[in-house]
User: Fold this.
Amino acid sequence: MNTITQPHGGSATKPKNNSWRVVDIVIAAVIAVSSGVIFWAWNNTHHVLDFLFLAFPPSSALLAGMWLFPAVLGGLIIRKPGAALFCELVAASVSSLLGSEFGLTVFASGIIQGLGAEAVFAAFRYRRWNLPVALLAGGLTGLLGGINDAFIFRWFPEYTMSMQLTYVGFMTVSGIVIAGLLSFFATRALAKTGALAALASRKAATESLL
Amino acid sequence: MKPTSMLSSSIDQQSSAVGHAIAISATNWGWRHADRTTAALAGLNLQIPAGQRVLLAGASGAGKSTLLYALAGVLHEDDDAFSTGELLIDGKSPAQGRGLVGLMQQDPETQVVQARVGDDVAFGAENLAVPASEIQRRVLMALDAVGLKLDLDHPTSALSGGQKQRLALAGILAMGPGLVLLDEPTANLDPEGVLEVRDAVIAAVEATGATLLIVEHRLDAWAPYMDRVLVLEPGGGIIHDGTPQQLFAPGSVREQLIEAGVWVPGYVPQLEPLPPLDSHAKETLMQAIEVSVSRNKGSSVAAQDMNLELVSGSAWCIRGANGAGKSTFALTLGGLLPQASGSIAATEKLGTGASEARPYDWRATELVGRIGSVFQEPEHQFVTASVREELAFGPRLAVKPGTKETLFSPEEIEARVDELLRRLRLEHLAEANPFTLSGGEKRRLSVATVLASSPAVLILDEPTFGQDANTWRELALLLREELARGTAVVAVTHDQAFAQTLGAAEFFISPAPRGAKETQGKSGLLEADIRGGTSFLGTANPLAKLVAVGLATIPLIASMDWVSSSLVVVVTLLLLPLAGLSLRRFFSRAWPLLVAALFAAWGTALVGNDSGAVLVNLGLFTITEGSAASGAATGMRAFAIAIPAVLVLFTTDPTDLANALAQKAKLPHRFVLGALAGMRLLGLLIEEWTTLGMARRARGVGSRGSVIQRLKANLGQVFGLLVQAIRRASRLAVTMEAKGFGTESRTWVRDSVFTWKDLWIVVFGAGLATAAILASVLSGSWNLVWG
Assistant:
C-alpha cells in the first residue's frame, strides 16, 4: 500500500520552480481541450434553460461560470504562471474550432477571462492555492468576463445600464461559485485519486482550506 | 507518398541515423517518488554492456518501470522526489542523454503524439533538431523497419493497438537511439499483436545493435531472444541475474519467480479440476437469438446472427479477431447497449418481476442485482472514494426486481463487504482511495464490486490483460467459486488457459463482413472535412484564414445592424464552394449556430425597447415592430459572427494550424504542440465518455431519471472523465519528453508557408470588412454598440 505523505508545513514558503515542465504543458492542454468540449456542449444546450431567465434576462449570467471554470481549474491543478490564461484560451479556441456561436470573438473573451484568474494567482505570487484564492480567482474572472460581455463586445445592447451592471454582478457571483468553488473541490477530489501525482498540486487534498 | 523499398538491412550502413549502443551502470542507485513514503528502488548496483538485450522481471511494485523512466531521463527531482546513488548511461547522466534513449510504454493510445503516421514518426527527430531532409529519409526507413506499409498521411487514430506500438517503435528508431526501453509494450495487445510487436522490436535491435531493456509480465514471447534476465525485488535491488536458460530452468529460482507472480515461460497456474455441477441446478437465465450488435445507434453492425444461451453455473468464453465485435456483444448482453436486431431476453428465473424481458430496458438499480459487467479498465467503474464504500455501493442501490424495495439490509451489506474484503485480500486497503491501488488490486476490486450485489450473470471483458500470474490465479479461483454458486459467467478473453480453467465453452465471433469496420476510426470531430481539406481554402495557410475572418468580424462587433451582418452572411455562403462545401453539408455542422442566433433574436425581440405597433402580446412581454427589428439585427449579428469561423473549421487541419501558429505566428512551440497533442486525445476522450456511462450504469448509477439524478450522474461522469484525461495526459507527457520534446530549438518536417493565395485571402477579408462598414454607413443603419 502506498501512503500519501503529509504535507510538511512550510512547503508554501519554499522557493519554487515556476518553469513549465512537459508534463505541466500536456496536462494543461488536456484539461483545456476537455473543457473546450464541455464549452461546445454547453454552447449547444444552454439555450434550453433560457426560459428560466425570461423574467429578468441579465440573470442568465448566473450560469456563465460554465465558461470560466478552466481558468481556475487549470491554475489550481498546474500551479504555474500562465496556466489559468493558457487553459481558458485553449478551451475557448477548441470550442471555436468545434463551431461556436461566438465565432472568433472567443479568442478575445478567453484571454480577458483567463487574465482575471491569472491576476489573482499572480498577486499571491503563485504560492497560495487555498479556497479564498480560488474564490477570488473565480470572482475576478467573472467580473472581467461580465465587463467583456456587457461593455466590450456589448452582446446585449438592448439592456439598460442597470441591467448591464446587474449582469456583471451576476457573472461575478457565478464565477465565484461555479469557476471558484467547484474547481477548488474538483482539484481536491482529483488529488485524492492520485491522478495529480506528477504535478505540484499532488497534495491538494491534504492542504488546509484557508 | 509510400515508404519506398529502403531495406532495414540498410540501416546499419546509414550510420547517421544510428546512435552507437549504450552501456548502463548503476551504483547504489535508488529513487523515491513524490507521492510515496517508501523508495521505489534502493541500492541498485548494475552493469549492462552496450548491445545487450536484457529482460527485467520481478513482482509488481519492484520498481522496474521506475528504472526505465530514470534511464529515459523523464524522472525529475523536486521538493519531494529524489534519487540516491548514481545512474549513468555511457558515463553520462540520463538527463544529458536526450535522443540517445527511446522509451515505449504500455498504453498504445498514449504512445502516439501526432495525427498522421509520417508526422508521428518524425516527431522525435524534429525535437532533436535533425535536418528536415534527413528526417524524411529516416521516417521511410523506420516505417519499413517495423513493417508498417502505410501512407505517410494515414491517420494514426485508425491504427490497431499493435500497429500503434510499431509506429511508436518507428518513431524511436528515427531518433537513432543507442538504448531502447520497453515498458510492458505488449500488455494491452492480443496474441497476434504481441508477436507483431515482438518481431518488429527484435528485428530493429538486430539491425541497429542498440541496447535493449524490456519490462514484461508475460515472458514466453520474449525470453528466447534475450541475453540476460534481471529479477528485481520490491524495495530492494537485483536478486537474480542470469541467462533465461539459467533462471527459467526448473529449480528454486523458477519457483521463486512463480511465487512472485512472474509469468515464467511455459508456466500456467494449476488449479484443481472443476467439480461437476449438479445437473438440477442448471437453468437458463438469458437467451440471445439471431442478435446483431453495433456500438452506436445507426452505426454499422459489428457482429451478426449470434445465438447464445446463458445457463446458471456455466461459462462462455467469447473469442474472435480484433474488431470482430466481442466487447460490443458483451456490452449488449450486459444490458448496456441495445442490440441492433434480433432478441435478447432474460428468462423468468433471471428477470422475475421485471416489466421488460430485455436487460437494456431495466433501470440501473434493477440491473445491478442481476447482471454484473466488469470492464477492461477497472478505473472506469470506480464511483466512490474508498474501497469499502466501493464494495457497499452496488448492494445499497440494488432493488428487488420491479419494486423500490432494497435487495439487501444494511447488516447484510456490511457482512458481504467484510467477506469480500477478506476473500480478495483487500482488508488492509479498506479505507484507501480505489484509484490509488496497484494494477492487480484494482482488477480484484473491480470484480469484487460487481460481485457484491450478487448478480446471477457475470460478464467480463479481458479480465486477465496485463495481470501477473498471482492475480490471474485469484481471479480464476473467484470466478470458479461463482460458477459453483450457480452464477453464469461470460468472459471476453484471448487467454485460452483462463477459459480452460473456467471450463468455458467457446463462442467464436467471426469477423464482420468487410466495410463494417470502416467506421472504426475514431477521429473526426476536430479534423478538417475530407472535401474541405483539398479545396481552395483547405490548401491555404490557416493563419491567413484566421486573420481574414478576424478582420471581417470587426465591423460586426462594432455595429449592431442588419446591413453589415447580412453582407457578411451572404458573402460567407457564397464562399462555400471555395471550401468544397454544399449548403447542405455546411448546415449539417452550422445549424446549432443558427438556432443560437434565433434564440438571441427572440430574446431581444421580447425585452428590447418597444416601439411601433404591437405584434405579439405575451402579457409581461410584448414584441413590437421596433423590438422585432432590433431582434432581427441581434440575431443576424450573432449568426454573422459565428459562421465565418465555420469556414475555417471545415478547411483547417489542427496540425497545419499548430504548425502555422508555431512557425509563422512565432507562438512558443512547446505550448502549441502540447495543445495539439491534447487535441489528439479528444476523440479518445469522447469515446471514453460513452464507455464511462455504460461502466457506471453497470455499477447501478442511473443515467435515466429525474433532472437532479441526471445532473448528479453527469457530474460524477465528468469527474471520472477528468481523471482518465489527466492519467492519459501524464503518460502522453512521458512519451513526448522521451522523444526529446520540450527544448528550445527543433526542426519541422512540415513547413508552414505563405503564398500569394494567402495574401489575397487576407486582402479579401480586409475588403469585406471595409465593404460591410461602407454599406452600413451609406444605408444609414450603422449603429455603434458602444454609442
User: Anything to note?
Assistant: Chain A touches chain B through 65 residues (CB under 8 Å). The helical segments of chain A are 22-45, 69-78, 83-97, 105-123, 131-152, 161-192. The longest helix of chain A spans residues 161-192.
